[in-house]
Specification:
The chain is an alpha+beta fold. It has a 5-stranded mixed β-sheet with strand order 1-2-8-5-3, with helices on both faces. A hairpin with a 5-residue loop joins β1 and β2. The longest helix has 29 residues. It is globular, with a radius of gyration of 23 Å. The chain binds protoporphyrin IX containing FE (HEM).
Length: 513
């Protein structure tokens, strides 16, 4: 109790009562039957900043205020919170881009020795970004189109009209990353790696009270002890370790193959890994990334880029199935553009994608910890339990702050009175956002986060979604089954979950003649 409990400076900030000392509000936040059930009600009651209890009486600040979010996302005073840091370590290892802190800088940080780490993140990110610029992503269009037509073929060949689209989209998005980034066809990725990736998704779908408690305890362990515990031979840890090892081995094999190809005088620039290795005729890296650094990014790119895009697409298709008029309008727009398929110039298609990202940010809460005492500005005053109004919040080093992405994206003050409705039309007259703060790399949304760790692959994801949606909607119509029981739950990321507790989203898929 003494270890876990520390006096906070945020105690006077209002928030819901905690139903339990052990779990605080975490069960309501993380295990509600439908994501947001409690969170959105709390936002309505307490405003854009409120206080919640974590396990064992620890307090966290839930923030959806735009000025505060802008500060937190971009400030060097915050880093990934310990639970997230542990997950990142387990899934991706210490050398991956996301593990390298990106926000430390010399003039603000007392940790001068960390300067090189900040530089490391910046230069690694700049190197990897070569494969994610607008021009590079345009070059992947044919890969997306090939994967989309493979997907439609599978749907045509399905023996049943009601199809769970989750595994099909997971495989399709994995295959595009395999080809664009690694230069590997789905067959080359290896059955074991594909199965392990799918296994990780299943594990992630098993959020439970036990997991919440385990996270609360392990987040307080010193890093060395957590890393030692991560070697325990439990089935879950074994699967995660195997997935990370297989991804590294795959990356390493590709690096060796590229070097050998360069020695044989062959062109190795056809995919991102080849470009980044930048080998000369002797197979030695010239000014590209070192082979082991590149191989260490394989797990991150495979996992971060696959399920995120697949889940956004699944949830978007469910909305189309729910809204037949929108589906018909979108199909007409696609038909009218069938010749050119200039995806960026199709207003409804892009409005639909933005609205899907707004309503269903697959990472709806992203936790940070304050690295030092700091003051968070607010765009609107909040009233403390003492009746005092404040326009900034002082927080102490070690305070957990939740970037409440989903709540921000439903703020009525920024998105309008119908912020909780799925309404793509809000984007048709320009930006749907009415605030002054520039947040996130795309459409003022935080679905791809913002700041130094914003999503590297956001253009990749948007282009892939444009192409998949066009191909699917012009070939099929989608409807929800009558007995639709799917709920959107938070299981590390947002996920459609069926009544049996498994990930899944069955839709009635009918070919269009
Ligand atoms: C709809 C699809 C996607 C969503 C919603 C999404 C969301 C995010 C978010 C929220 C983060 C920040 C995580 C954090 O630091 O707490 C992130 C980081 C990242 N994403 Fe994505 N992502 C998507 C697709 C992709 C794709 C397709 C790729 C690659 C092919 C990708 C690669 C990455 C990488 C490498 C990072 C780490 C960046 C860094 O730490 O500097 N993502 N993404």
């Amino acid at each position: 109790y003494v270890v876990f409990r520390r006096p906070g400076t945020i105690r006077k900030i209002q928030g819901p009562p905690s139903p339990s000392w052990i779990f605080g509000n975490t069960l309501q936040l993380l295990l509600s039957a439908q994501y947001g059930e409690h969170e959105f009600a709390w936002q309505k009651l307490y405003g854009a900043v409120y206080r919640l209890k974590n396990c064992f009486g620890e307090e966290r600040l839930m923030v959806s205020d735009p000025a505060a979010l802008h500060y937190i996302v971009n400030s060097s005073h915050f880093e990934h919170a310990p639970t997230l840091e542990n997950l990142i370590y387990l899934l991706y290892g210490l050398k991956s881009l996301v593990s390298v802190p990106g926000t430390f800088c010399a003039h603000e940080s007392p940790y001068t020795q960390s300067l090189s780490i900040a530089e490391e993140h910046k230069s690694l990110r700049a190197a990897l970004n070569v494969g994610f610029t607008a021009a590079a992503v345009r070059g992947y269009q044919s890969i997306f189109e090939k994967a989309a037509s493979r997907l439609t073929e599978e749907l045509h060949n399905s023996s049943s009209a009601t199809i769970d689209i989750c595994p099909l989209l997971s495989f399709a998005t994995l295959s595009t990353i395999g080809e664009a980034v690694l230069g590997q066809s789905p067959e080359d990725l290896g059955e074991e790696l594909i199965q392990n990736n799918l296994e990780i998704v299943k594990l992630a779908a098993s959020q439970s009270r036990r997991q919440i408690l385990a996270d609360a305890v392990t987040s307080r362990l010193p890093a060395w002890l957590f890393r030692a515990a991560a070697r325990l031979p439990t089935p879950t840890l074994k699967t995660i370790r195997a997935a990370k090892r297989l991804a590294y081995e795959l990356g390493d094999r590709i690096v060796q193959e590229k070097r050998a190809a360069a020695r044989d005088g062959l062109d190795t620039d056809g995919d991102l890994f080849g470009v980044l290795l930048n080998t000369d005729a002797s197979g030695t890296t010239k000014n590209g990334l070192a082979g082991d650094v590149l191989a260490a990014q394989t797990a991150l790119i495979l996992i971060a880029g696959q399920e995120t895009t697949a889940t956004t697409l699944v949830l978007a298709l469910r909305e189309l199935a729910r809204l037949p008029a929108l589906q018909a309008d979108l199909r007409s727009e696609i038909a009218a553009n069938a010749e050119s398929l200039a995806y960026d110039s199709m207003p409804l298609l892009n409005a639909f994608i933005k609205e899907s990202l707004r309503m269903f940010p697959v990472v709806p809460i992203d936790d940070r910890i304050a690295r030092q005492d700091t003051v968070i500005p607010l765009s609107e005053k909040i009233t403390l339990s003492t009746g005092e109004d404040i326009s900034e919040i002082f927080i102490e080093k070690g305070q957990i702050v939740s970037i409440a992405i989903a709540s921000f994206q439903r703020l009525k003050s920024r998105w309008g009175k119908d912020a909780h409705e799925f309404n793509p039309n809000r984007w048709l007259q320009g930006s749907a956002y009415s605030g002054g703060e520039a947040l996130g790399p795309y459409a003022n949304l935080l679905s791809f986060l913002g700041g130094p760790h914003n999503c590297l692959g956001w253009r990749f994801a948007i282009s892939e979604m444009q192409i998949f949606i066009c191909e699917l909607v012009r070939r099929f119509s989608f409807a929800l089954p009558e007995d639709d029981t799917v709920r959107i739950r938070l299981v590390n990321t947002l996920m459609p979950v069926m009544s049996n507790g498994q990930k899944g989203a069955p839709l009635i898929v009918s070919p269009i003649s």
